[in-house]
Amino acid sequence: MELMPDATLTSLQLPPCALLINGQWRQSAHSFPVVDPANGQVLAQVASASLDDAAEALSAATNAFTHWRRSTATERSQLLQRWHQLMLQQRERLAQLLCAEQGKPISEARAEIDYAASYLNWFAGEALRLEGDWQHPSVAGRQLLNIPEPVGVVLALTPWNFPAAMVTRKLGAALAAGCTVLLKPAESTPLTALALAELAMEAGIAPGVIQVLPCATPDPLAAFLIASPQVAKVSFTGSTGVGRLLMQQSATTLKRLSLELGGNAPVLVFADADLDAAVTGIMAAKFRNAGQTCICINRVLADAKIAPELEQRLAAAVMALQVGAGQVDTVQIGPLISAKAVQKVQQLVEGAILQGARLVCQQRLPAALQPGPAGGYFFPPTMLADVTMQMGICQQEIFGPVLTLQTFTDEAQALQLANQTDGGLAAYLYGGDEKRNYRLARQLTAGMVGINATAISDARIPFGGVGSAGFGREGSKYGVADYLQLKHLCWELAE
Ligand code: SIN
């Protein structure tokens, strides 16, 4: 069985591996390599933005804001639509790039491009639906108007796990609202973002509306931009630790923030659940992007009555997953993003076993997939049972292909276990009693709940969490609201 593809490097259509500032592609003094996590092969050298580059980009975004904010909603909507169309036209090229730099299976990469494009389509519609209101005055002759205005220049910090969808989810909303953007893509996956920006330029989006600043050492660059009062808002998807830091840094200039941070998603499986649907849903939501998704299931909580059967069915499904380079059509689990990521997952598994977890199953990876100088960052699909909330593996996002199982005996215990987390992005439940489903869904600590469903991501839903999973909503009509502020006009009209 083929696990590694023939060399794909030559077939990749790379975007400009440069900075995009004021509509111009520019090299910089330094560059950094982008590697394929399946084999360590260098895919490209990408320009790394300096603080001077960032200052220039900021000035371009600030200038562009003066005209972009005055463009009509129809113009902005049409440009987003054109960008969306170009993405679909280049779907295969974008999916190949995404797969090569991020590692996810090509089928998932294609699905991500469709998902990412759907945000542009959605926000093209939202641009047309922006509206304010008029109020009855308390003083005769006055007109009271509430008008939504774009907040200004936005710093978008996007993660490596969804290099396309997180760009369009942020930029689609920002542009629809009339904001201009500084985009800093994750340093391990800038190629997809650069290709998207190339298409945005082709769509006719004016110079200065979108800047792209790949950077090998992003912390000083982000700190520099956040310190500037010219940046009105920061939108970040990533870890809770970095989210906290960005919030501290934003305090001085009182920035608006949207933070989509880490989750610790539980799935509750009740005895009356449709187990076929539960197994399918759990496998899809646990192993999406090799477990490297913020809304991946982190903890399976099963009613003790069906736990043995669920364990057996899940174990069979885990052992059947095909691991390999994402470019191979049949592969379901690609590499993790880095050696550090593999090490972290390994430590969580070992720590849990030391604390009493039971290793239900773990695939043995063939030599071609073993980590090594020429090998990639693969981790074998694994299942652990008898885990407890005291274990690191239940407290932290695993971000790897490891399924954990624990049991409950009644509804109260199920809820108590599910909510033993200081924040929640997604939670899921499977059960046949719709009243209980609704009751629990309302009590789960999470921004989004899947009821007998796990594939919940959609441009039309408000994506976001509660507590340490962050705040702000992306997608939906609420997503664009995060890039707007109300201006009130109290207008005394001489009659
Ligand atoms: C994420 O992992 O942050 C995004 C996942 C999604 O949009 O479905």
From TrEMBL:
Ranges of residues in domain Aldehyde dehydrogenase: 25-488
Gene3D superfamilies membership: Aldehyde Dehydrogenase, Chain A, domain 1, Aldehyde Dehydrogenase, Chain A, domain 2
Enzyme class per UniProt: oxidoreductase
EC number(s) on file: 1.2.1.-
UniProt superkingdom: Bacteria
GO molecular function, one term: oxidoreductase activity
Active-site positions on this chain: E260
Keywords attached to this entry: Oxidoreductase
Keyword presence, Oxidoreductase: yes
CDD domains (alphabetical): ALDH_F5_SSADH_GabD
Family to which the UniProt record says this protein belongs: Belongs to the aldehyde dehydrogenase family.
Protein name in UniProt: NAD-dependent succinate-semialdehyde dehydrogenase
Species in which this protein is naturally found: Rheinheimera tilapiae
Taxonomic placement: Bacteria, Pseudomonadati, Pseudomonadota, Gammaproteobacteria, Chromatiales
